[in-house]
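User: quick one, sequence for these tokens?
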């Protein structure tokens, strides 16, 4: 704690009257230093980046932009400080420092905050700045004996702090030089995620689900996130893993399921950049997902690309976002039409990189999606339309739903060799009850029409309701419960027999993520599935997992 003598007041205005000796100023508390912010990585676990988050975060958190709330700006007149009045006891002193010596700084909001506490180091820094300014004025206006005595007393009083401050600056300069010499890149950050999963499946004896063995699987990812303007992001991600699906189980696929054999693969390659303040462009070149840029209206569950929220592909977001995904590229847009409305639209080409017949960017499989997302305080609503085409080329598997959700019949209602169109309609909503409960719901309908003879038509349905309890039992923890029906064929029209339609396959999932620390989470969970493979006569199946996620 520091008690300032009248010398401090004399410094505030070298010719100002000195206050009484017994009127001393008590200054205390610790104030944080400003530091440069890093690029906003838009969360490695979830690639989704909203327009406002992307533009604001990358604009305000660029590589060389300091934190705004601690910046100080030099003022040239005391009238620029809105909270300093001519009636203040130190007004004349401040006026002298500003207009005579030019060594007072104000905050960006035009305030001086004269009643705020400061440390001895902060005072020493201000004193040093004033001394430097006064030294530069000596040739113009010599100082009087009283001023010289005051300056000498201040130098002696704060000699230790000034020396320590210079030592800190020298140390910081050395550390910065070392970091610059050894940094990985001036434009790129490296992020990583590793998932371990210990899992097994039971039940479903009629379809041999119970014969699955206990597995210990992994998935590893390294992402290089680059920014060239401070407002853009280039994502290059490498994936490897051996997390395969359970045999004879078409539902309940994990979000971390990925099998690359013994190789490391490009798992995602995409570029985000803004146009103006309200438009975000998404330009993927390999393995895009709709939720890369479209709001899924599924807080606390969404995160297929990461493994820190829901266990399964079905629970993390509506299956409508898994229709028509591609190996190639395309383009997407997010437009903030108003403060409460975001318009999203995109086009993906299935094999956009292939020059073969019935392939390429426009002549092969494709999918188009449009969505209106409404945001009202604690309520968010999304209305989605998805149109897709699946051809009969040798490279096509004609799977309507990718990444796992749905019965076998819903994924391929007309077999693996039939070209087909789909038109899908979905709605999703999320409501936040304070800070402790979030309610999510989604529903969707897909009309699939075969292009083969007979013109078969399939009606596919899916819906779900979820409850999330964030920070339950501690910061970062999460309890999630999801119940609903995975995509199933509710009816077939045309040459096929209606008896082929699925029974409703209900999905019940519960998980609890325990955040061990900032980098490690442990998530036990269970999935209960009825009517495996769309047959109610099949015994129910249960999937259990203990998942550990490491991020760095």
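Assistant:
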């Amino acid at each position: 704690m520091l008690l300032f003598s009248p010398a401090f007041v004399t410094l505030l205005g070298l010719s100002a009257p000195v206050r009484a000796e017994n009127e001393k100023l008590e200054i205390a508390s610790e104030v944080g230093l400003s530091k440069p912010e890093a690029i906003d990585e838009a969360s490695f676990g979830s690639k989704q980046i909203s327009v406002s988050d992307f533009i604001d975060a990358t604009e305000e958190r660029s590589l060389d932009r300091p934190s705004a709330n601690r910046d100080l700006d030099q003022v040239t007149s005391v009238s620029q400080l809105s909270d300093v009045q001519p009636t203040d006891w130190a007004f004349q002193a401040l006026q002298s420092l500003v207009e005579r010596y030019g060594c007072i700084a104000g905050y960006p909001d035009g305030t001086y905050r004269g009643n705020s506490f400061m440390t001895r180091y902060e005072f020493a820094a201000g004193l040093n700045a004033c001394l430097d300014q006064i030294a530069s004025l000596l040739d113009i206006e010599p100082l009087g004996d009283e001023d010289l005595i005051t300056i000498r007393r201040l130098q002696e009083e704060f000699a230790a702090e000034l020396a320590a401050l210079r030592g800190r600056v020298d140390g910081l300069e050395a550390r910065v030089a070392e970091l610059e010499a050894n940094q990985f890149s001036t434009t790129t950050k490296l992020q990583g995620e590793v998932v371990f999963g210990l899992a097994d499946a039971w039940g479903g004896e009629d379809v041999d689900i119970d014969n699955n063995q206990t597995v210990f699987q992994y998935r590893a990812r390294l992402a290089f996130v680059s920014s060239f303007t401070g407002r853009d992001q280039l994502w290059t991600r490498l994936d490897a893993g051996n997390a395969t699906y359970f045999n004879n189980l078409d539902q309940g696929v994990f979000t971390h399921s990925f099998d690359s054999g013994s190789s490391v693969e490009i798992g995602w390659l995409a570029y985000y950049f803004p146009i103006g303040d309200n438009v975000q462009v998404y330009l993927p070149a390999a393995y895009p997902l709709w939720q890369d840029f479209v709001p899924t209206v599924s807080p606390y569950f969404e995160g297929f690309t990461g493994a820190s929220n829901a266990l399964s592909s079905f629970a993390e977001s509506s299956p409508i976002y898994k229709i028509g995904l591609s190996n190639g590229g395309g383009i997407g847009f997010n437009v903030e039409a108003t403060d409460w409305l975001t318009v999203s639209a995109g086009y993906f080409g299935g094999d956009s990189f292939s020059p073969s017949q019935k392939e390429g960017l426009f002549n092969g499989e494709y999918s188009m999606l449009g969505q209106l997302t409404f945001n009202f305080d604690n309520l968010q609503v999304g209305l989605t339309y998805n149109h897709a085409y699946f051809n009969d080329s040798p490279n096509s598997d004609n799977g309507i739903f990718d990444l796992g959700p749905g019965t076998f019949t819903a994924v391929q209602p007309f077999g693996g060799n039939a070209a087909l169109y789909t038109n899908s309609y979905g709605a999703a909503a999320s409501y936040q009850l304070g800070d402790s409960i979030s309610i999510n719901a989604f529903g969707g309908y897909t009309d699939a029409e075969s292009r083969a003879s007979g013109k078969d038509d399939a009606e596919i349905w899916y819906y779900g309701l979820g409850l999330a309890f964030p920070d339950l039992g501690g910061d970062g923890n999460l309890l999630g419960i999801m119940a609903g029906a995975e995509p199933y064929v509710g009816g077939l029209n045309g040459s096929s027999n209606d008896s082929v339609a699925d029974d409703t396959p209900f999905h019940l999932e519960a998980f609890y993520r325990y955040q061990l620390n900032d980098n490690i989470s442990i998530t036990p969970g269970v999935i209960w599935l009825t009517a495996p493979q769309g047959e109610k006569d099949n015994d129910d199946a249960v999937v259990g997992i203990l998942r550990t996620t490491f991020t760095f």
